[in-house]
Amino acid sequence: MNTISAFSRRRLLILAAAGLAVPSATQARSPLLLRVQSSQGETRFREEDFAALPQSQLRTHTAWTEGARLFEGVALKDLLAAAGFDEAALAGRRLRLRALNEYEVEIAAEDCAIFNPLLARSMDGSPMLRSDKGPLWLVYPRDDNPVLQDLRYDHRWAWQLAVIIVV
Q1: Burial of 118 (0-12, 13-18, 19+ CB in 10 A)
Q2: 147-167 core/surface letters (b: 16 or more CB in 10 A; e: else)
Q3: How far apart are CA 22 and CA 108, in angstroms?
Q4: What is the 3-state secondary structure (H, E, C) of 98-118?
Q5: Distance (Å, rounded) from C-alpha 37 to C-alpha 99?
Q6: pLDDT at 106 (0 to 100)
Q7: In this predicted model, what pLDDT tens digit does every residue of 55-98 receive, in sequence order?
């Protein structure tokens, strides 16, 4: 009997395809950027891992900035897929987002399919710093969907994001 689960094989294949293989001991690694945790384990993303994923852009207004801003980063669904969670694996689940300052919010995993939020690494071409909502900010396409232009959705915009827990 094969001791590697289908989940583990899929996760290994996704990570290998995304270029997230473990580097040799002589290669320098950047600091940890984000962790994705679940009852099945943890996937860690460093700067180079995040950069190796498909990159996306989103231009939208926010409740915290003036005018429309251009955000660049990785679609939340793409990052979760790299951690082994495709749309089927996320069905009916929730995502607990935890920031560096311990702010925590829980959202439905279906937000990935419905709204396609972005894990923004840069705003208007500049990397996002901890002092200004970085290094990662979960950004929703507010201008593309009138439903998101409501205060009830603003709390989902987790900045200084450090951990995503799939529950």
Answers
A1: buried
A2: ebeeeebeebbbbbbbbbbbe
A3: 31
A4: EECCCCEEEEECCHHHHCCCE
A5: 14
A6: 97
A7: 999 999 999 999 999 999 999 999 999 999 999 999 999 999 99
Global pTM value? 0.81
What pLDDT, in 10s, does the model give residues 5-33?
555 555 554 555 555 545 444 467 889 99
Is residue 58 within 8 A of residue 76, CB to CB? The reply is: no
Query: Topology of domain 31-166, per CATH?
Result: Sulfite Oxidase; Chain A, domain 2 (3.90.420)
CA neighbor of 19 nearest in space, from 47, 57, 39, 42:
47
